[in-house]
């Protein structure tokens, strides 16, 4: 989710289709008739699914759009701004290179403001390891503990467990540039990363892993962040030379220029969408741990947080 991009971290895109696209007048569609179809692309982590669930639910129930969902990785969704297939990314983690390409150079996308979420990426260990090895959260001490983290995948080195290879990560460069005796191993998905973290706590298994917030797991179990050399502006400008920690991200939304110009109430709604990490984590918990469908999770959240989402609805809708 940041300034170093491994191509294709999932991205949330809204694609507007249908006869004539979305109407600009939110109140103009006859009762029971859709005002257009919004194709919602889903990123491969549950926080994004939470955003998508609520957006889909309210676009359909409150604004009268039809919403279709499909899975898209981040970089593919950005490409959709140019092809006309994607209208909006509603949780963007940095990506200054993509912003330069599609907003500044090609001028096919525009900034649509913050989501309200603060994104955090870092390295973590389960809390029990901190209690047993109090200095393990200092990154300068990681080589001392490398043997604890050896696995069959990492061989003679300690393992640093990452998630989906498409997630934004500086970890390979960090390991090399900080001269750490570790190997980055990819679990393959957010779900696999969470499972490993939970097992590390339940079974007292050593684990050093890449993780991020917003994330419901932090409300369920305790993990401690490992301190790396402090982030300073520009320290990650060259992806191959990164030797500093990740910055905090103000997560934002990016929409196609066409959607901004012609999307009407659907665009205004996406632009107005803003909530907190706690909101996202709550819906993520519904989806992951309480067995709810996307619609059920969104409906429950919306029924209990009307004061939050009412301000997203465009005036006159």
Q: What radius of gyration results from the CA coordinates?
A: 21 Å
Question: Could you say what the CATH architecture of the largest domain is?
Answer: 3-Layer(aba) Sandwich
Binned, the helix content reads 25-40%
CATH C-level class of the largest domain? Alpha Beta
Task: Give the overall silhouette.
Answer: globular
Separate helix tally: 11
How would you characterize the largest beta sheet? 5 strands, antiparallel
Instruction: Please report the total strand number as a whole number.
Output: 10
* Structural class based on helices, strands and sheet pairing: alpha+beta
CATH homology group of the largest domain:
Periplasmic binding protein-like II
Written overview of the protein:
The chain is of the alpha+beta class and 317 residues long. It folds into two domains: 35-118 and 249-310, D-Maltodextrin-Binding Protein, domain 2; 119-248, D-Maltodextrin-Binding Protein, domain 2. It has eleven helices and ten strands. The chain has helices at residues 46-61, 74-83, 96-105, 127-132, 171-177, 190-202, 257-262, 264-272, 277-289, 294-304, 306-309, and strands at residues 14-17, 37-42, 66-71, 88-92, 109-126, 158-162, 182-186, 209-213, 223-226, 249-256. The strands form three sheets. Strands 4, 5, 8, 9 and 10 form a five-stranded antiparallel beta sheet that branches. It has a three-stranded mixed beta sheet with strand order 1-2-3, with helices on one face. Strands 6-7 form a two-stranded parallel ribbon. Strand 6 (158-162), helix 5 and strand 7 (182-186) form a beta-alpha-beta unit. Helix 1 (46-61) crosses helix 9 (277-289), helix 1 crosses helix 10 and helix 9 (277-289) packs across helix 10 (294-304). The longest helix is centred in the first third of the chain and has 16 residues, at 46-61. It is globular, with a radius of gyration of 21 Å.
């Amino acid at each position: 989710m940041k300034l170093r991009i491994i191509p294709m971290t999932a991205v949330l895109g809204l694609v507007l289709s249908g006869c004539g696209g979305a109407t600009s007048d939110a109140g103009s569609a006859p009762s029971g008739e859709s005002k257009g179809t919004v194709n919602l692309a889903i990123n491969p982590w549950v926080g994004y699914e939470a955003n998508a669930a609520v957006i889909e639910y309210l676009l359909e129930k409150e604004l009268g759009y039809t919403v279709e969902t499909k899975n898209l990785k981040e970089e593919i969704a950005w490409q959709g701004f140019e092809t006309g297939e994607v209208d909006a990314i509603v949780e963007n983690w940095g990506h200054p290179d993509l912003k330069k390409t599609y907003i500044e150079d090609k001028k096919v996308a525009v900034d649509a403001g913050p989501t309200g979420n603060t994104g955090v990426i870092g390295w973590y260990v389960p809390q029990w390891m901190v209690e047993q090895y109090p200095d393990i959260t200092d990154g300068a001490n990681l080589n001392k503990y490398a043997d604890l983290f050896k696995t069959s995948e990492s061989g003679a080195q300690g393992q640093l467990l990452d998630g989906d290879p498409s997630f934004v990560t500086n970890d390979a460069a960090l390991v090399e540039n900080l001269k750490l005796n570790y190997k980055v191993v990819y679990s393959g998905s957010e779900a696999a990363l969470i499972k490993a973290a939970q097992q590390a706590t339940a079974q007292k298994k050593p684990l050093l892993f890449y993780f991020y917030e917003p994330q419901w797991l932090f409300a369920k179990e305790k993990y401690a962040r490992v301190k790396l050399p402090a982030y300073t502006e520009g320290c990650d400008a060259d992806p191959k030379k990164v030797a500093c920690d990740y910055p905090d991200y103000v997560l934002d939304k990016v929409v196609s220029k066409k959607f901004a110009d012609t999307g009407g109430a659907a665009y205004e709604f996406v632009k107005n969408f803003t909530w907190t990490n706690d909101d996202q984590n709550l819906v993520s918990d519904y989806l992951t741990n309480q067995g709810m469908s996307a619609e059920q999770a969104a409906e429950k959240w919306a029924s209990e947080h009307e004061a939050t989402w009412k301000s997203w609805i465009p005036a006159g809708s």
